[in-house]
Design brief:
Blueprint lengths: L2 E10 L1 H5 L6 E9 L1 H8 L9 E9 L4 H5 L8 E11 L5 E12 L12 E2 L6 H12 L17 E3 L5 E3 L14 E9 L3 E5 L2 E12 L2 E8 L1 H6 L8 E5 L2 E4 L11 E4 L5 E4 L27 E11 L3 E4 L6 E10 L4 E8 H6 L7 E10 L5 E12 L4 H12 L7 E2 L23 H6 L9 E13 L4 E4 L10 E2 L5 E3 L4 E3 L3 E11 L4 E7 H8 L3 H10 L1 H10 L4 E8 L2 E3 L2 E3 L1
Parallel strand pairs: 3-5, 3-6, 12-15, 20-22, 20-23
Antiparallel strand pairs: 1-2, 1-4, 2-3, 4-5, 7-8, 9-11, 9-13, 10-11, 11-12, 13-16, 14-15, 17-19, 17-21, 18-19, 19-20, 21-22, 24-29, 24-31, 25-29, 26-27, 27-28, 29-30, 32-33
Helix pairs in contact: 10-11
GO cellular component, one term: PML body
GO molecular function: DNA binding; zinc ion binding
Protein name: Replication protein A subunit
Length: about 575
């Protein structure tokens, strides 16, 4: 059966008021069902009056919101629905979510509403009798069946003999208690452990994808032992009975406002017949765009590995454990190059000898030495992916890219045809005395230099603050003294916050000493702990917090310093 619709109206769904950044649109559609409509609409003529019309409410999948933004769905627009899913609400009502549709005739080309549509009432007989009457009067050959592009099985049979309805990832929200999704595992992180004053634990995270979207899931402690050996990369499973909560997007690029936490009742069952499900979903940004991307943002990038460094071994201060690190230098058709840090097994196993195309999902942006990227435990790295973007990059690099002089956005790397060295402004090594006598930071632009310094003192009193929990905001919150915090930037009141660090450190070398300000990433490196843990420790165990601070004294680091004279409290400050 061919299904066509004409848009009669449009509005925001209820969830859009709860989450304005991810609006959901409700469409009021005139549903037209008749095989002859295909011919009339394709021939750009008005359908005859014997075609049946009824008014139905649909939800537009969020990935189609661009059609609204681009004014493609004006009133009276005629569309063909190519793919949809049906979701059943708690009260038994059914919601149709449009996953893919094609505009056949824009609204401005359609003079007015076609036909005389009537309101469709679920379970009523009016619609059925109207269709029957129209078809009795104009009987023709049976209509062809539309191909079903949905999952191979819309139901999961449970051990008790009952069936669980499979719902799309896009429909999940914290108000659902019973749900089942069929999804492919596109990323599986390593097991991570923690130990603090409240105890010990372990966790691992996975990323799941189906035709409607993607979501992140995390297992803790007993669920780690239960599910980690079972779940494999790129395999498809039925997942059910997990806890849904608002996602923390600080460490992931998964495009979903919610995430799943495995609980004791969580079920994971392999699915053998789901080859139609997509693999990793990327939302690439060009390397040139990274210069305008905020620090700590999580991004997806793709580039050709023009050069790479040898593996180096670093000792983690917190665990005294040795970890591998390797830097890659990726270039794309924008002519820009960026340095990417790989860690652990990925650093050991990476082979860049053939200059492969590398796609990374969920890399974190750093402003240490210009702009650079770091691959996280939650990131996904794919070498020579089977994607159009990779094929285009391969052709560009082989034909011209490898011969071009590229400009690096990461200080300390040359943009030439290969090898390592000091490109851009270079490392610009200075002693602390040279940094003071060289008038660095006195001009209109900031100066960057590298130095080796030993921590001789740091100010711990105001090194932590409670910041806005929004992913793109680090503004200090105002305590309302009623259990809530206010962000002046976001105009938001919330009981939640995240800990951020600004650490004043006094460093010294063999010639001089200098106060430097270390922000989040650099401060965490010096102290060997993340800000969240330190914030909790400061509130619960001041002695343990002071012990961590004292351990950093007399530790030596390589510093990349930005020097700029700025006004602070009406006085110049470097």
């Amino acid at each position: 059966m061919w299904v066509f619709i004409q848009l009669c109206g449009r509005g925001l769904g209820l969830s859009s008021f709860l989450n304005p950044k991810r609006p959901e649109f409700r469409l009021i559609l005139s549903l037209m069902v008749n095989i002859l409509l295909y011919l009339f609409l394709r021939l750009k003529t008005i359908p005859p009056p014997f075609c049946y019309f009824c008014i139905v409410a649909f939800m537009l999948a969020t990935q189609l919101n661009s059609m609204v933004d681009e004014q493609s769905l004006a009133v009276n627009t005629i569309c063909q629905i190519n793919r949809f899913i049906v979701n059943t609400l708690k009260d038994g009502r059914k919601v149709v979510i449009v996953m893919d549709m094609e505009v056949l005739r824009p609204g401005d080309a359609s003079a007015a509403k076609i036909g005389n549509p009537v309101q469709y009432v679920e379970g009523g007989s009016g619609a059925a009798s109207a269709v029957a009457s129209a078809e009795e009067e104009h009987r023709g050959p049976p209509p062809p069946k539309m191909p079903n592009k949905g999952p191979a099985s819309q139901f999961l049979s449970t051990p008790g003999g009952s069936q669980a309805k499979v719902v799309p990832i896009a429909s999940l929200n914290p108000y659902q208690s019973k749900w089942t999704i069929c999804a492919r595992v596109t990323q599986k992180g390593q097991i991570r452990t923690w130990s603090n004053s409240r105890g010990e634990g372990k966790l691992f995270s996975i990323e799941l994808v189906d035709e409607s979207g993607e979501i992140r899931a995390t297992a803790f402690n007993d669920q780690v032992d239960k599910f980690y050996p079972l779940i494999e990369m790129n395999k498809v499973y039925y997942f059910s009975k997990g806890q849904l909560k608002v996602a923390n997007k600080q460490y992931t690029s998964v495009k979903n406002d919610y995430e799943i936490t495995f609980i004791n009742d969580t079920s994971v069952i392999p699915c053998e017949d789901a080859q139609h499900l997509p693999s990793v979903q990327f939302d690439f940004v060009s390397i040139a765009e990274l210069e305008r991307t905020s620090k700590d943002a999580i991004v997806d990038v793709i580039g050709v590995c023009k050069a790479y460094e040898e593996v180096t071994k670093l000792t983690m201060k917190t665990t005294n454990r040795e970890v591998s690190k390797r830097d890659l230098h990726l270039v794309d058709s924008s002519g820009k190059m960026v340095s990417v840090a790989l860690w652990g097994q990925e650093a050991d196993n990476f082979d860049g000898s053939r200059q492969p195309v590398v796609a990374i999902k969920g890399a974190r942006v750093s402003d240490f030495g210009g702009r650079s990227l770091s691959v996280l435990s939650s990131s996904t790295l794919v070498v020579n992916p089977d994607r159009p973007e990779a094929f285009r990059l391969r052709g560009w690099f082989d034909s011209q890219g490898k011969h071009l002089e590229t400009s690096s956005i990461s200080n300390g790397w040359s943009g030439g045809s290969g090898g390592s060295g000091g490109g851009g402004s270079g490392p610009n090594w200075k002693t602390l005395r040279e940094s003071k006598t060289g008038n660095l930071g006195q001009g209109e632009k900031a100066d960057y230099y590298s130095c080796i310094g030993t921590v001789i003192y740091l100010r711990k009193e105001k090194c932590l603050y409670k910041a806005c929990p929004s992913p793109d905001c680090n503004k200090k919150l105002v305590d309302e003294q009623n259990g809530l915090y206010r962000c002046e930037k976001c105009n938001l009141e919330t009981p939640n916050f995240k800990h951020r660090m600004i650490l004043q450190v006094n460093i010294a070398d063999f010639q001089d000493q200098q106060w430097v300000t270390c922000f989040q990433e650099a401060a965490e490196t010096i102290l060997g702990q993340n800000a969240t843990y330190l914030g909790e420790l400061k509130e619960t165990d001041e002695h343990a917090f002071n012990s961590i601070i004292e351990k950093s004294f007399f530790a030596t680091f390589e510093f990349r310093v930005r020097a700029k004279m700025e006004m602070f409290n009406v006085r110049p400050s470097m």
